[in-house]
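Give me structure tokens for this 452-residue protein.
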Amino acid sequence: MVNLYVTVFILLLLNCCNVILADQNEDKITYLPGQPENADFAQYSGYVTVNNSAGRALFYWLIESPSYSDTNPLVLWLNGGPGCSSVAYGAAEEIGPFHIQNDGNTLYLNPFSWNKLANLLFLESPAGVGFSYSNTSSDLYTAGDSSTAEDSYTFLLRWFDRFPQYKYREFYIAGESYAGHYVPQLSQLIYRRNKGIVNPIINFKGFMVGNAVIDDYHDYIGTFEYWWTHALISDSTYRNLRNSCLSGSSQHPSAICNKALDASDAEFGNIDPYSIFTRPCNSTTTLKRRLRGRYPWMSRAYDPCTETYSSEYFNLPEVQDAMHANVTKVAYPWSTCSDIVGTYWADSPLSMLPIYKELMEAGLRIWVFSGDTDSVVPVTATRYSIDALKLPTVIKWYPWYDRGTVGGWSQVYKGLTFVTVTGAGHEVPLHRPRQAFILFNHFLKNKSMPFV
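Here you go.
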């Protein structure tokens, strides 16, 4: 009888494993159209349903490390907006292994892809962003910070069930811009729900955010100061901005604040506010976004129009088939950002600083980095927000180096490391890919940036 129980248990276990492997194999990408032949890593993509009754499902893209994928940490990357795609920005023009050629059809390898150091999980969140969808159309008009964090947490739990080999693995979250809200809020949710669990499935170790929206009041002060000190706006507009916007929300500014922001927009002229010293993309197919809201946008380095190449590539039917995407055949094309989600964004807390304090006290690793040529969430905004934490300094402000050249500056506080990347705009890994790779490597090792 004992042997019978053992046999039944083994059969059930094998059946469970076969189901899991089948689910993974269904999501495996065998080949992406236009992919270079020498790609030596596994990749998976597909949907995880986060709300069965609403029919809400989030799209992910897992890109494993070419070596040591079974031991390297797992890193979840989130872009912000709110309403912008992590596939379009984080994966396709920043930290992913494939970037898109200007023909919109072929890919080339990124020599500084972060998957050389970690397994990368890109998530399009919330529903309505990129390939993520909901069968309940009102979901697109009611998304906010709280629901996004809850859906992302549900996604992770169900994704780990599909990929159990990543359970208990070192896990980090990274992102940029309005993900300065997403990342700490999801981090807090994981931390709180892990409490009391000796060996949690989500082995969360810390987070890293770049050019991040942190605290509306201090972000506004630092942003307006950056515009004024970089001669982007007039003295009178600077005064009007400080008088009309400092008491409001960056996501829902008052009418008088909007008027001052419109004046500053006009004074900026035809520049790329996300990278003020590089030329903008003047393609008629690219919309110039407002300075407020939807933070991550076009690329700005060697080619300022890569956002348009993403729109072309990810709308190709053969690409969607290869990625197991758009399975419901939604009525609208894939886009880099959802205007509906961003326009109707609901709750947006004024400050993430209380969450920072809670997670620092918990001993989690927290790094904040900033490209210094971004005027949308500039380095001064980040410095004012960090200063508001009143943290003791462990290593005072110093230049860090890459091959004998200053790569930026850093200061290590008790509980938080701050790093700037010189010459980088809003999307740091796009403008300074090598320096961003060094930054990521030091974050994973929890090692201060190089002094020489």
